[in-house]
Design goal:
elongated; two-stranded antiparallel ribbon
């Protein structure tokens, strides 16, 4: 990063003055948030689609 791209601001989380490209939590706060709120991926499997009994087939498909 170029020093011209950095802005100086107060971290909204810890109130320290930091220089970063975008406004938001400082790098220390971001690391702490990732460690605290990190989620784990879950393997989710959906049940097969079963149409309800009140659903009728298309009338065109039944035409002989």
């Amino acid at each position: 990063m170029d020093s011209l791209d950095l802005d100086s601001f107060v971290c909204p989380r810890c109130a320290r003055t930091v220089s970063d490209q975008y406004y938001g939590p400082c790098s220390d706060c971001r690391d702490q948030l990732r460690a605290t709120y990190a989620g784990e991926a879950k393997d989710v499997s959906a049940a097969a689609y079963e149409p309800k009994m009140n659903v009728t087939p298309n009338a065109v498909a039944l035409k002989d």
